[in-house]
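Lab meeting prep.
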Amino acid sequence: MTAYLEFEKPIAQLQDRISELRGAADGDDVDIGPELDRLEAKSAALMKSTYASLTPWQKTQVARHPERPHFRDFVENTFEEFVPLGGDRYYGEDMAIMGGFARLDGRKIMLIGHEKGNDTESRIKHNFGMGKPEGYRKAIRLMELAGRFGLPVVTLVDTSGAFPGVEAEERGQAEAIARSTEACLALPVPMVSVIVGEGGSGGAVALASAERVLMLEHAVYSVISPEGCASILWRTAEKAPDAAQAMKVTAQHLKRLEVIDKIIPEPVGGAHRDPILAAQNLGKALTQELESLCKMTSEDVRRMREDRFLAIGAD
């Protein structure tokens, strides 16, 4: 059963009423069909209207929903023939950032992305999607491999930020993030990045410095979390909703600011309510982008990427 968020309480109450009605009528001859139809139509309309007017903070909550599809879900439902590749050839393996060869609509690609996990055990295994230096160095290795074999790169970004632990700093976290960003910008092959959940800080930018950056409809992308921003500005995380509003973290804001290029629609109620449809929408958008990018020369791709980032913030 889908977990309801705080702002979804009216929808949850309607769904509870529908379940109670079904349970009370089970084995009874009373015709509750019309009443059920009315309540279900009301619930669907309420869901649609609620998700059509989400605040930035509410979108942040949706992007963090525990049932939202992650990298492995998209691997299963969007791509074919995924062959995982591990290790950075310097230190070890980082399960927060995964990658390998795959096919998208028959096209060979290099797929890289963050994996958060979907239960306690897998979240610990994948470090909640917070990459360590070896994860970013693995991403660099895979990008260089893609360049060598002429494969376009697709990245799926979903992280609250790079891992902030002391051991990560000791192993050169900042340098690894900078090198990964540099590797994205220097790629001789097309690159498309998609923010599928949270795009947090340098941990996201390190895999999202592409010539085409897309976002799922209810994803968020920012230099710092709303809670972190609120803690700095107001000394309390309770101001996170105000921070989210001011930071313009949503796909809709970022599209208007030309930080991203396209918004991929999600099923009504968020990607977690229909992961397969969300994966299909993602696949269609990626196929369309790669179709045009793969016709370009390496020099044109690099120039497009350079122009894109130099134009951000320009008058």
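Slide two material, second protein:
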Amino acid sequence: MRMSQDWQAATVRRTKPLSPTVRELELAPDAACTRPEPGSHLPMRLTAADGQVLTRQYSLLGRTDDGLAWRIAVKRCMPSRGGSAAVHALTEGDVVQVLPPQNHFALSVRAPQHLLVAGGIGITPILGMAQALAARGADLRLLYAVRTADELVYADGLRALLGDRLQTFVSAQGQRLDMAAEVAQLRPDAQLLLCGPAGLTRAAQAAWHAAGRAAHRLRFETFGAVATEAQPFWVQLPRHGLRFEVAADQTLLQALDAQGIATLRDCQRGECGLCAMDVLDVEGHIDHHDVFLSPAERDADRRLCACVSRVRGGGVVLDTAYRPDPA
């Protein structure tokens, strides 16, 4: 579990629709509005429609021109785990609780060449990186992949900044990003920075590994992906003597919390592996949506990440870290 920290109030100063599913918000904190480094995110405490208090992290686009507010852009997910719906319900004047900006996806400017890759709303941390690298005259390219053209919410500004160093891919128009080909073009000491869904991240990992490149030169941040047609499934915990159902609009981690099962977690996007649990048996098929487990581990179905993974067509028997106290 995360350690407790001091939350502060921030007022929604402005909201702006960027597409049918994406809204940009300005949040003016009561305390100092520090300048975030590229790759930073803003932890927010939100109230879901059912009254549940949620903690979510949203990548920062930077500060407003007057330096008094932070900017974020959030896509309304369908189905939503509660966070994006709560953000889209905010209106000007609403007050939310935030922590100071944090950065687990820091930009290194030392590499001689940079390839930036964004999938959909993953453009939010990549935007500031592109701006910082362009200001330094760095060797960079940005690949921006989306499903539909209206998701290219920051393409115009990036085109003005980067020119032909920006390449967009719209899958609805038959355009595909070939990660293996892009990696093959890079210098041996190049850096790849990526933010996008798990599938895109896995493709980058596979291409990077196949090319024999140094692991530390691939940096990524993903957003938790769940099955687009999520199904309920059952979970059995023999050590606790429990069996319960995970609803279609609920994550396994949320269901464990509801049962009072303490579970380690951090990113809640399938990256860190803290919530990974041992699978004792499975009925049906595990949908692994993490990027922490290796391909071999996902194929073996012996572990899963509770924050993002699900089961189709049945359920799963899990071993938790719980051990009863000796008598």
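Talking points for slide two:
The helical segments are 83-88, 123-135, 155-162, 179-184, 198-210, 252-258, 295-300.
The radius of gyration is 20 Å.
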